[in-house]
Specification:
By secondary structure, the chain is α/β, with parallel strands linked by helices. The protein contains eleven helices and 16 strands.
Length: 370
Amino acid sequence: MNPPPSSSGAEYADGASVRLGALVPLTRPGWVEAGRHLLAGLELAVREVNDAGGIDGRPLELVVRDTAADPERAAAAVDELAGLGVAAVVGEYHSVVARAAAARADALGVPFLCSSAVLDALTEEPTQWVARLAPAQSHGWGIYADFLIGAGRCQVAVATQPSVYWASGTRVLRDHLVARGGTVVELDTNALTPEALCDALVDHGATALLLLVGHPEPAVPIVRAVRGDRRLAEILIGAPAGQPEFAEWAVALGEDGAAIPFLRYLPERLGPLGERVGKELRERLGEAPSFVAFEGWDAVTVLAAVLRSHGTDRAAIAGSWPRVAVEGTRGPIRFSRTPGISMWQWAWAPVQVVDRDTAEPDRFRILHAG
């Protein structure tokens, strides 16, 4: 754990804004649609904070930086934001990018509330500076493995690409499935064409194919190839990382994109707060908000509560994580030290396994909850 920095953040003149840095993937190769939803949630919450009087009469200002799914760019953005005097940093969707941001925030002594990235090892060592809203990968993907087992889909193939995130997900799935008599085989999409991947699925007798790959490439061509292969008519295609959550998935694949179970972090029914925020997000986005948009709103709302009660001193903000008690859109948010997790963690946001309805691809069906 790093010692507190010598500086606790910028001093503000009376009436000056309280700045929050925001890390969001807004350009390719980042997942732009996820970034757009995340930013909508962040911005809506900032607007509501300011409409309610800001932070002790000072406006909350969001200073947004595009990470474009680039870890080095994210780390540089944390440096820049720290120099601009932000009280804290919030956001990020991609786990590998969030890991770079968390490491830099920890080194600089800047509080970082990660909204959406799930990689368990977001920091190498325990840190007081980082907290997270999204469930850890071992928790969410373990629930996904339980779903596969319950569905009788234990002979699993994972179509994967080199990445710490995908490797971690494969490990979680293997740990859960093999212990209960299942198998997991890895298929390298950098070495196999979609057609060759179909042949490998037949050879291995796989009952499920999980897409541990980027979207739209190579996920979309793989889905099309598997859906078009009569030998694989009975195979389950799954996407635990959540690729089918966003509208661009349905646009790209139509009916072929339905019945592909994925993880999302929403309750079965939103409460009054979630319903209200969801309506506002829908108006802002022009479409149904994803869970990522709710994560953005919750993240700013948590930080606003911390800023009101503990001020803008960075060390005071980081020291407040264990005392957070905020009503979020998806339930009461509190942070704790969780075994195997190096930061302060909300344990846990609600987890669902859902898919798009084959008869109506814009409608989601809840298949399993944990």
